[in-house]
Design a protein that fits this description.
Length: 284
């Protein structure tokens, strides 16, 4: 791609022309902002974010609820929170269905997500196209031996409350947790493996609903080539989205993807998909 072509990306309309004609491999990077309209709070927004609502757990600091060392000492706060945010309680958002629409059009190379809520799976996105960089609730393991435990059993035990998760711990002789990456734990091998393969192929990077404050996830935006366009859809500017090849839509995620879909002529398809899948989800 030449600099001359890149210089044409002065607005979303020019980017839409590029998507319609040249794009084949889109990587979507997502954060907690895409799940807010589902009723799941993000982490850092003052007043409404998860970290500002944890007083009831009597934590030494907010991030302790996702600290492996603290979990080993006092697992109750995490299990209590997990009961509230377990998948199955929340319907995917229009943004999740926009990502699925990209897949259905054969344009989605991969969705790298920070989110642990499993709403990508709930939205029907192919699991092979999802990289849950910080893990999620789909699988579960013992924390010492890392033996896999049936996630249905884990969910049932956590939903029963303290009696349930204590009984589960006694059964296996150690604590069990969903395979969410806690502070102090490494990211999944699959994250690093696919990262090496995917970003050289990417011809459009779309970043949605993330503060880009947590490493190494935040550094993903720098892995695409210097001439690969990057689109940010977020409530505020984040990262280094100030370069010549960047376009920003500063608004909430669902509004942003709907505007992009409209510009691409996909509105009818997107709204039909949202309506159909939301009705199916509500019947579960």
């Amino acid at each position: 791609m030449t600099d001359e072509k890149m210089n044409k990306f002065e607005n979303i309309e020019e980017l839409v022309k590029y998507i319609s004609s040249d794009v084949k491999n889109i990587i979507v990077i997502t954060g907690a902002g895409i799940s807010v309209s589902a009723g799941i709070p993000d982490f850092r927004t003052p007043g409404t974010g998860l970290y500002s609502q944890l007083e009831k757990y009597d934590l030494p600091y907010p991030e302790a609820i996702f600290s492996i060392d603290y979990f080993k000492k006092n697992p109750k706060p995490f299990y209590t929170l997990a009961k509230e945010i377990y998948p199955g309680n929340f319907c995917p958002t229009p943004t999740h269905y926009f990502i699925r629409l990209l897949e259905e059009k054969g344009l989605l190379l991969r969705n790298y997500t920070q989110n642990i809520d499993s709403l990508e799976n709930e939205a029907g996105i192919n699991k092979e196209l999802i990289v849950a960089a910080h893990g999620n609730f789909d699988t579960a393991s013992t924390i010492k031996g890392k033996h896999k435990i049936n996630p249905v059993e884990v969910k049932t035990s956590i939903m029963e409350g303290e009696e349930g998760w204590k009984r589960m711990s006694q059964k296996y002789g150690e604590l069990i947790k969903p395979d969410i990456v806690f502070f102090g734990e490494p990211l999944p091998y699959r994250f690093y493996e696919l990262m090496k393969e995917d970003f050289g192929k990417c011809d459009l990077l779309i970043v949605i609903g993330t503060s880009l404050q947590v490493q190494p996830f935040a550094s993903l935006i720098n892995l695409v080539s210097e001439d690969t366009p990057r689109l940010l859809i977020n409530r505020e500017k984040v990262g280094n989205f100030y370069k010549y090849r960047d376009i920003t839509l500063i608004k909430d995620c669902d509004t942003g993807v709907r505007e992009l879909a409209c510009s691409l002529g996909w509105s009818v398809e997107l709204e039909s998909l949202i309506s159909k899948e939301t009705k199916k989800w509500k019947k579960k």
